[in-house]
């Protein structure tokens, strides 16, 4: 494993080495989270680089990335651990055939060998970078379940006792803010909001992430997307869509934005038919004005 950055400038350089263009505020929040050993909760719209931050951090620090993808109904069995019931039943039957003592069998089947370790337990044991992705998709009881882990880096398994992290993992939590995260969880984290980047930073991101796109086309793409975000749409395109669109245009052998090609590829940028219908045609020509 590589050493943690010693200051904000080194944090920025660390991320830049993984083609992640961070502004000073994000680099500062990340550096403090690493320095103080605190989880970092990142909120923002989809596609602005929240998940990618954890991926790049794990890669650049040469640490294992352990990802817990959140969803509605997620519980401790899927996030932390569960017992291998089928293997336990097999062990019980074999023990019965061999005439083994029942208490001895009970101790055996509730040992670590029969434990299925899920992401949270893996992170406590192995360290690395723990990504708890899209936390807002879960419910409040799951947030409450996370409090012990995020404050003390430990969990309690009734049959085995308390398991504490020898070296706490680096924890990144993300949220698209489809609902508010409870204050009790937020107090255990440092917080940062990632918004849509300005034109200069988005251009830098695009050049870092899609180096095969000609500079002139990159400039036009960013100018168009920046204007597009100023319109009244149901879902604005994120930086991920900007990168996808630029790569799509290159795949179509485009070197400049043309109305027909923009109309034909709007589905790469916009993910709702109402938004595509609103922008297509005259609106595209209006947005293209001044992007060349």
Structural features, described:
- The two termini are 46 Å apart.
- Helices cover 50% and strands 14% of the residues.
- The protein has helices spanning 8-16, 24-36, 50-61, 76-79, 85-98, 102-109, 119-126, 140-152, 183-186, 199-209, 215-228, 239-251, 259-264, 266-269, 273-279, 282-288; strands at residues 40-44, 65-69, 81-83, 115-117, 129-133, 154-157, 161-164, 170-175, 190-194.
- The model has no long low-confidence stretch (mean pLDDT 92).
- Strands 2-5-8-1-9 form a 5-stranded parallel sheet, sandwiched between helices.
- The radius of gyration is 24 Å and the shape is elongated.
- It folds into 3 domains: 8-72 and 120-194, Rossmann fold; 81-113, no CATH class; 199-284.
Total domain units: 3
pLDDT < 50 stretches: none
Q: What would you call the structural class? A: alpha/beta
The count of DSSP E runs of length 2 or more, i.e. the number of strands, is 9
Strand content: 5-15%
Into which percent range does the helicity of residues fall?
40-55%
How large is the radius of gyration?
A: 24 Å
The biggest beta sheet is recorded as: 5 strands, parallel
What order do the helices and strands come in, and which of them pair?
Blueprint: H1 8-16, H2 24-36, E1 40-44, H3 50-61, E2 65-69, H4 76-79, E3 81-83, H5 85-98, H6 102-109, E4 115-117, H7 119-126, E5 129-133, H8 140-152, E6 154-157, E7 161-164, E8 170-175, H9 183-186, E9 190-194, H10 199-209, H11 215-228, H12 239-251, H13 259-264, H14 266-269, H15 273-279, H16 282-288
Helix pairs in contact: 1-2, 5-6, 10-11, 10-12
